[in-house]
Amino acid sequence: MPSRRRSPALQYSPGSLPTDASARRAAQEFADLVGRVVNTTVSQCPISFHQVEGREFEGYVSHAEHKVPVPMPLENGRYLYLYQRLGLRRPERYLTTLEYKYQYQEAEDDESWVFRYEYQREPEEGYRYPLAHLHVNGALETYTADKPFPRLHLPTDRVTIESVVQHLVDEHEVACISPQNSQEVLRRSGEAFAEIQRRRLLDG
Amino acid sequence: MATAEHEVTYERVTPEEIMVQLDRLARDRLGMSGEEFLAQWRARALDAFSPAVSRIAVLARLLTD
Questions:
Q1: B24 in any annotated domain
Q2: A36–B61 CB contact, under 8 Å
Q3: How do residues A162-177 score in pLDDT, each as one tens digit?
Q4: By CB atoms within 10 Å of each CB, which of A100, A119, A166, B33 scores lowest?
Q5: Interface predicted TM-score (ipTM) of this complex, two decimals
């Protein structure tokens, strides 16, 4: 039976997570953060966190049907496939992103994709591209190499859902659901993520 | 005016439940069973760039150590 809770104020700074219960709480807080960012801005679709049984603590944040991620309709009639897989790594048991995929698409069908940001912390053996990258489903007259342009893995830093949402609002005409506080939510959420990254750097 | 209220759902999912959905997607999108997909994916015989393969591979990674 799924459990639901309304999100408190933004709060995601878990640090070391010695028990699965603390990991679960941190993952829930992270999912709350994502839910708040999405639901105050680009989509009214519910966001879920699914914990995968039978593995060391691991789960994923997404809009899901039948417990698996599906593209969610946006306020501009397009779709966003949002997927973040979280797990514990390092001796300190930090909750970290193992994989993400943010795919903007014209319709529900994946073949209508426009761009997709992807990241894999631990790719399959033999993978030789940037761990964090961008694919763009377009063609350039100035690009004449053999490899199709959409197949290029354009390197990026790790991209946050906040920056993708901001991009959708600014340049894809997605009308904000709650314009009076969306910028504040995006700003505070982005700051929380930056603070987590800063602490990790200090911890080495 | 729409509100900023939101609810986040927390659920557990079993590997068997993931496999059911992987199988459904693989049959629907690629015309193969979930087991066939996993075998070919592990053998790197699929085009990982394909939107359909990429979408199903998300589930496959949840079933792989």
A1: yes
A2: no
A3: 999 999 999 998 888 8
A4: B33
A5: 0.91
